[in-house]
From TrEMBL:
Membrane topology: Multi-pass membrane protein
Main location: membrane
Recorded GO MF terms: ABC-type vitamin B12 transporter activity; threonine-phosphate decarboxylase activity
GO annotations of cellular component type: plasma membrane
Role according to the record: Converts cobyric acid to cobinamide by the addition of aminopropanol on the F carboxylic group.
Name of this protein: Cobalamin biosynthesis protein CobD
Length: 321
């Protein structure tokens, strides 16, 4: 651990952070990431103009992420002892989004099950950037399943990984960087240069977590055939996807679930033909629930692995237990 936590403390704090998220969910009045989004928006309006937009984007990323991460690390260092441990747990709670994934996606499955397409379209539009006005059940279920699988990594597993590496400041660094990628990492006239550096930084931070997530989806496929299919889809389909990290995560997850995701989606009124992800049937309402269970199961797996690692080092008499 880069900032002095033992493996036992790390495992316990990972569990505490996840439990806080599941019990409390997002803060109702003011979420820190919303405030950070407002800061990022103000920086982008100020700096995304004129020449040297790549450098300006890197500067904006540094101004948004570095001071907040350094402040979090400094406060923990100054607190020490039990207050520092509590601060680690709170930072993880603010950064993780497991319950948010459940609360935003399972109502879509419920609306589809009840045949309420207008409500399902409205709910899906809140979590994806594609057009949903004319989407049918398969389109909406596909969008929700894809969002669950990809954001399982972005909102949950990447955060857990970087917490394991560097505690609360590590989780904060990852989540802020991922938020900026979601806001600025578009390949269009406005963000192609300005958002390039933030997008590449997020790619680097996600390089290991995404592949651990993909491997977890393979391991948790419900059948041996599903595990083989998830592995084969990962190896064959991930390179075709535009994102180097979303490709492994979504292809292995779709393969594990026996679903065919990807394909056509409507953005800004234009049909975009994306590569195929996974193999099997088209998504339906029940598959959203199955995708959520895969994400929840992977969370449990990661917490279990952290506990086993801590227990093993402790039994072996390690100095970092």
């Amino acid at each position: 651990m880069l900032i002095g936590l033992t493996l036992t403390q790390t495992a316990l704090l990972l569990l505490v952070g996840v439990l806080l998220d599941l019990l409390l969910g997002e803060t109702r009045r003011f979420h820190p990431l919303v405030g950070f989004g407002n800061l990022a928006y103000a920086l982008e309006r100020r700096l995304n103009k004129g020449r040297w937009r790549f450098a300006r984007g890197l500067l904006a990323w540094s101004l948004a992420v570095a001071p907040l991460t350094a402040l979090g690390a400094w406060l923990i260092f100054q607190a020490g002892g039990a207050p520092a441990l509590a601060a680690h747990a709170l930072l993880l709670y603010f950064c993780i989004g497991l319950r948010s994934l459940r609360d935003h996606n399972l109502p879509i499955a419920q609306a589809l099950t009840q045949g309420d397409l207008p409500q399902a379209r409205l709910l899906t539009a809140r979590i994806v950037s594609r057009d949903t006005a004319q989407a049918n059940e398969a389109d909406l279920a596909k969008a929700s399943a894809e969002s669950l699988l990809e954001n399982g990594n972005d909102a949950v597993f990447g955060t857990l990984f970087w917490f394991a590496v560097a505690g609360g400041p590590g989780a904060l660094l990852f989540r802020l960087a991922n938020t900026l990628d979601a806001m600025w990492g578009y390949r269009n006239a406005r963000f192609n240069d300005f958002g390039c550096a933030p997008a590449r930084i997020d790619d680097v931070l996600n390089l290991i977590p995404a592949r651990l997530t993909a491997l977890s989806y393979v391991l948790l496929a419900p059948t041996l055939a599903g595990k083989r299919r998830a592995w084969q889809c990962w190896r064959a389909q991930a390179p075709t996807w535009s994102s180097p990290n979303a490709g492994p995560v979504m292809s292995s997850g779709a393969g594990a679930l026996g679903l065919e995701l990807g394909g056509a989606a409507v953005y800004d009124g234009e049909v975009e033909q994306r590569p195929t992800l996974g193999s099997g049937t088209a998504a339906r309402a029940g598959d959203i629930v199955r995708a959520w269970r895969l994400v929840a199961g992977t969370t449990t797996l990661w917490l279990f692995c952290a506990a086993v690692a801590a227990a093993t080092v402790h039994l072996l008499g390690g100095t970092h237990a």
